[in-house]
């Protein structure tokens, strides 16, 4: 049944429906509401789960790594500095091939101290071997969290479900919350392929000398290469029960678009409005919303952007010295492709600064007016 | 689409007022979206919240810059902040105030007032120094907008406020009847 829910609580509902067995977390704004609701569910027995209180995010990840190794379903959530503190163990979770699911609420890193929306925290974890899925509204946050468990357990890789601070985490909107029996049909209980078992003692995560290590890393890469296919199967199963589907990337009016705007997260909603307005003025504008960042959907980007003349990538993040991170990834995805459009890179909306319709229209007009892109990212909406 | 902007102070229940109204509008058949402009919140600090309602899915996710309605929970904010910034010409302002403000201050707008502080005190909501006025403001707002219907407002208050529920419902009803248009 549809009800008005906060984005954070949409995630909590998905974790409840997934019948997670062990959770651990350390509070940090703007993630806190997710775990507050879940700790209540553990306390009042709406969930039959263990909530492990810890003294840091590093320990929270260590706790779910330990729990997941014993073959139970696990969840944690964090943001920003908390995610940065987990960094070492993010590598550990993926290399140990543990299907942990984590909600990551995008928040800027300090200093200057800032609790608002910025993607640099999760994108800094690009190479840790986690699948990353970016959501655009509360319904998608719920659906993606539920799907994340299915996907993680199929490929034995951890999944990060990423939400915008405040624009998603603290926004209330109508959400269809599935019934438990439908959730159970979609997501059966976890049957691990390996686990710590006191009846059958063995050592895990041991020393891997040069003769073995490389094959283990190749295994992670091979698992990543299966993700696109498994994600599409997961979505098809989900759609059969719940009627909703999102895709690894979502194309809006891209078929005949001359300029495609690329954006990630809730600002895609605002951009959708801008595209509709531009179309009404006769502009051939399209929108490509990326949902999956790892593994990167190179095939879809090549297909969708093939006919456009220009792509304008809006990054709510920055890799200092290189520019917008999604723009770099898209340039890399297109560079060996036969024919590809110019890729324009824009940086906007850092540290919670609003991405308004005016900002997006300005980006569209700058892209249309320029013959070719600058090498460096163009910063939009800076104060004079 | 209709856009409503709330101006209050931390501790008055500004954000919850917006959430309760959103739930009442949703119950009445509207698509809704509400969120706070989050500062690092603390008691007494200025707070803003936004509410959008439409008969179709709401795409836009940015802050509200050109509201149709303003709800001002603390009239003193009118002296310190540019509260009416962006309010559409002909837009309506609801102010928590015992008196009618100088009409010259708001010549382009329609103004309504309600003494939500006194109503909250009468119903023992919050403390004598920090009355919680959000449910009174919700009742007054439902009157000036003509929406959402009284039964959906009462239902949303009942669902969202587990303590002193009937006091809050009564405060909303009283404010509905006491709101004055200037």
Task: Give a structural overview.
The complex is a heterodimer of chains A (384) and B (182). Chain A is an alpha/beta fold and 384 residues long. Chain A has helices at 7-17, 32-43, 57-69, 80-95, 120-123, 138-155, 180-186, 210-242, 267-280, 298-305, 325-334, 357-369; strands at 2-6, 22-25, 50-53, 74-78, 101-106, 131-134, 159-164, 172-176, 249-252, 259-263, 285-290, 292-294, 310-315, 342-347, 378-379. Chain A folds into 2 domains: 2-242, Thiamin diphosphate (ThDP)-binding fold, Pyr/PP domains (Rossmann fold, 3-Layer(aba) Sandwich); 249-379, Rossmann fold (3-Layer(aba) Sandwich), CATH 3.40.50.920. Chain A is 41% helix and 18% strand. In chain A, the strands form 3 sheets. Chain A has a 7-stranded mixed sheet, sandwiched between helices. Chain A has a 6-stranded mixed sheet with strand order 9-11-10-13-14-15, sandwiched between helices. Chain A has a two-stranded antiparallel sheet with strand order 1-8. Chain B is of the alpha/beta class and 182 residues long. Chain B has a 7-stranded mixed sheet with strand order 2-3-1-4-5-6-7, covered by helices on one side. In chain B, helix 3 packs antiparallel against helix 6 (165-178) and helix 5 (150-160) packs antiparallel against helix 6. The longest helix of chain B is centred in the first third of the chain and has 14 residues, at 14-27. Chain A binds chain B through residues 3-4, 30, 115-116, 166-167, 170-174, 266-267, 269-270, 272-273, 276, 354-357, and chain B through 19, 22-23, 26, 31-36, 38, 40, 58-63, 65.
């Amino acid at each position: 049944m549809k009800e008005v829910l906060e984005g954070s609580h949409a995630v909590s509902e998905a974790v409840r429906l997934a019948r997670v067995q062990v959770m651990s977390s350390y509070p940090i704004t703007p993630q806190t509401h997710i775990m507050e609701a879940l700790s209540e569910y553990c306390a009042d027995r709406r969930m039959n789960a263990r909530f492990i209180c810890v003294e840091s995010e590093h320990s929270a990840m260590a706790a779910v790594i330990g729990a997941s190794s014993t073959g139970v379903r696990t969840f944690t959530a964090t943001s920003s500095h908390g995610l940065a503190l987990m960094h070492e163990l993010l590598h550990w979770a993926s290399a140990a091939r543990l299907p942990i699911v984590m909600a990551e609420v995008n928040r800027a890193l300090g200093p200057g101290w800032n609790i608002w929306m910025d993607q640099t925290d999760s994108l800094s974890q690009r190479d840790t071997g986690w699948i990353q899925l970016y959501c655009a509204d509360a319904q998608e946050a719920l659906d993606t969290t539920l799907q994340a468990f299915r996907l993680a357990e199929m490929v034995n890789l951890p999944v990060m479900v990423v939400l915008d601070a405040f624009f998603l985490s603290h926004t209330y909107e109508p959400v269809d919350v599935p019934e438990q029996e439908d959730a159970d049909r979609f997501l059966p209980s976890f049957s691990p392929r390996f686990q710590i078992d006191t009846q059958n003692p063995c050592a895990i995560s041991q020393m891997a000398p040069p003769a073995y290590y490389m094959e283990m890393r190749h295994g992670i890469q091979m698992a990543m290469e299966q993700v696109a296919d498994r994600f599409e199967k997961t979505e098809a199963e989900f759609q059969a029960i719940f009627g909703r589907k999102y895709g690894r990337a979502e194309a809006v009016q891209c078929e005949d678009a001359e300029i495609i705007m690329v954006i990630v997260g809730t600002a895609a909603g605002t951009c959708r409005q801008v595209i509709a307005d531009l179309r009404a003025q006769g502009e051939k504008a399209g929108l490509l919303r990326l949902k999956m960042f790892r593994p990167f959907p190179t095939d879809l980007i090549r297909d969708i952007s093939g006919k456009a003349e220009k792509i304008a990538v809006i990054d709510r993040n920055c890799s200092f010295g290189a520019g917008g991170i999604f723009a770099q990834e898209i340039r890399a995805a297109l560079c060996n492709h036969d024919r590809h459009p110019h890729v324009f890179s824009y940086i906007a909306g850092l540290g919670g600064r609003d991405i308004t319709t005016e900002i997006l229209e300005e980006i569209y007009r700058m892209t249309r007016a320029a013959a070719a892109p600058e090498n460096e990212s163009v910063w939009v909406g800076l104060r004079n | 689409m209709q856009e409503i902007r709330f101006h209050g102070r931390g501790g008055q229940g500004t954000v919850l007022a917006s959430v309760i109204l959103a739930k009442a509008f949703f119950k009445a058949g509207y698509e809704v979206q509400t969120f706070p402009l989050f500062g690092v919140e603390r008691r007494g600090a200025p707070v803003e919240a936004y509410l959008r309602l439409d008969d179709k899915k709401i795409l836009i996710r940015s802050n509200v810059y050109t509201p149709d309605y303003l709800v001002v929970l603390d009239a003193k904010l009118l002296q310190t902040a540019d509260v009416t910034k962006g309010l559409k010409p002909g837009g309506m302002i609801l102010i928590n105030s015992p008196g009618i403000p100088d009409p010259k201050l708001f010549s382009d707008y329609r103004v309504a007032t309600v003494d939500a502080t006194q109503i909250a005190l009468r119903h023992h909501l919050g403390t004598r120094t920090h009355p919680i006025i959000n449910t009174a403001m919700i009742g007054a707002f439902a009157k000036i907008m003509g929406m959402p219907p009284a039964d959906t407002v009462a239902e949303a208050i009942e669902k969202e406020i587990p303590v002193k529920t009937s006091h809050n419902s009564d405060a909303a009803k009283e404010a509905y009847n006491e709101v004055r248009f200037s």
